[in-house]
Amino acid sequence: MAKELVSRDQVRVEDTWDLSAMYENKEAWEADIKFINEKLAEVGKYQGKVCESAENLLAVLELSAIAEEKFELAFNYAERIFDQDQGNTEHQSMSQRMFALYAKINAATAFVSPEILACDAAVIEGFIAAKPELELYRLQIKEIQRLKAHTLSAEMEKVVAMTQEMGNTPTEVYSAFKNVDMTFPAIKDENGEEVVLTDGRFVPMLMSADRRVREDAFKAYYGVYAKYLNTMAAIYNGEVKQHIFNSRVRNYSSNLEAAVDENNVSPQVYDNLVKTINANLDKLHAYVSLRKKCLGVDELHMYDIYTSMIPDAAKTVKYEEAQKTICEALAVLGDDYVALLKEGFANRWIDVYENKGKRGGAYSATAYGVHPYMLLNYTDTFDDMFTTAHEMGHSMHSYYSNQAQPYIYSGYKIFVAEVASTCNEILLLEYLLKNCTDKKEKAYLLNHYLDSFKGTVFRQTQFAEFEKTTNEMVEAGENLNSENLCKLYKEINEKYYGPDMISDDEIAYEWARIPHFYYNFYVYQYATSFCAAVAIADMILKEGEPAVARYKKFLSSGCTDAPVELLKIAGVDLTTPAPIEAALAKMGEIMEELKTLV
């Protein structure tokens, strides 16, 4: 019999998150939705009057912030409930209502920025001087003024806001199709037992030491995607088109420029990453050659890329053991940091294991005023321990920023979002290496370190290159379809992995399974953040408390400055290629050390 996933009601309560910190019940959630709508009605009373007085400006900013803060909480609650079982129709409805309310909030507040921009800057300064409470909103107003060239009239802003709910449709369709409707066959595991393939089990099966299991999982999994490539291409084409529509409406030269400008980042940072990585693909090619040698195969296939290069060294890590190890490894960040980790583990911040209908992957999510929440699909692998440390990094970043900043400045920009999470992973790895006495285990850890470079720096840049190219194709008037997407993806894959890798036909379908392509130029930040995290972890381990203090100041800074500037607080300057080049040099050192052990 194949091992089926358990249903949600069969999961142990202690392994699920406790959402009562947000709302005790659905009735309380409904009450906040009513409250939000009331505040939006009050905001509307100021349309056309925002800059008539300091009192009006303050009132509209305060009301908007109150409505948005409450919405963040209500949205978080609905999405966490939805993600724990996406097949539940009541939960689907709650999620859909939140996206509708989000569009309503944007439409209801659409007049605010245009009216502020229409007001002379000197008048705004006079309002702030006359009404000291407005000082809190100075940075927010400055950010509105920064985006003046891309802000439309109040009427046009309202129309654009009304398209947002419709614009989210491709993401909703993709999520429902991938996480609920798609089903995968069973394959035989290492013991000859039938196991049903799922998103959560796919990568662990590719990590198997048994090559037959890896190949069977690879071909069976992508065999299902092969049936739906036209559907997936149509969904992705719609996703790209709606983002390009928004970028053109807002007078950007490209969707890339629009996406990175949300974080006050230059497109040159993106292009510099792709250019620098392409100039250093020899390091990934060397990694592939080393992998081929370590595995002792005549041909290295894409289904060989996840399994450890060090045979028989992979070990299972139970969730309880992972918690203990993570707390020990991150002790370098101070007692306060470890106390928060333990609180999260003990007090059900985390939804731990996979169940039927649960969203795949892992994430951290937060709403102001309550602790963060984490979704995992823990399967007792070594990688799962690192995923847990990674998501805890996100959670701690949110916690520190929420504690230090008022709501309007608490949300750190996406550009720095992956720094804290990746720094945790690197500190965990360095801790394990330092305390390792077994040669084979050390080789395994070095292999994992190299895999982190492969997966986070090179793979995410590979994704970034694919995403940029697909957007440019649509911007040039071309439609995306299964044929050109598969062709492009395979060509980029072959370039990145080099001559020692067999790019199997199935790898051309991989683009269809990557949810991050629906995050609009998100993935490049994994690579830049990894390089920043390598530098920060190195400073923490070498300098100790001074570096930790700088790092915590960065964690607490929210969005109080441009993200590139905030990273400088922690000691990293991503306006130069230096952090990327230093990280790649570190990869070279690790590769040479591993060669001496194998």
Automatic annotation (TrEMBL):
Q: Which GO terms describe its biological process?
A: peptide metabolic process; proteolysis
Please give the InterPro entries that the UniProt record associates with this protein.
OligopepF_N_dom, OligoPept_F_C, Pept_M3A_M3B, Pept_M3A_M3B_dom, Peptidase_M3B
Instruction: Give the GO molecular function terms.
Output: metal ion binding; metalloendopeptidase activity
Q: Alphabetically list the UniProt keywords.
A: Hydrolase, Metal-binding, Metalloprotease, Protease, Zinc
**Protein's UniProt keywords contain Metal-binding:** yes
> Which CDD domains is this protein grouped with?
M3B_PepF
Q: What note does UniProt attach to the cofactor annotation?
A: Binds 1 zinc ion.
Needed co-factor(s): Zn(2+)
**Oligopeptidase F N-terminal domain mapped to chain residues:** 115-184
Q: What is its EC number?
A: 3.4.24.-
Pfam families per UniProt:
Peptidase_M3, Peptidase_M3_N
Residue ranges of domain Peptidase M3A/M3B catalytic in the record? 205-584
State whether keyword Kinase applies. no
Judged by the first EC level, this protein's enzyme class is hydrolase
| Family (UniProt) | Belongs to the peptidase M3B family.
Q: What does this protein do?
A: Has oligopeptidase activity and degrades a variety of small bioactive peptides.
| Annotated protein name in UniProt | Oligopeptidase F
Q: Which organism is it from?
A: Pseudobutyrivibrio xylanivorans
Question: What taxonomic ancestry is recorded?
Answer: Bacteria, Bacillati, Bacillota, Clostridia, Lachnospirales
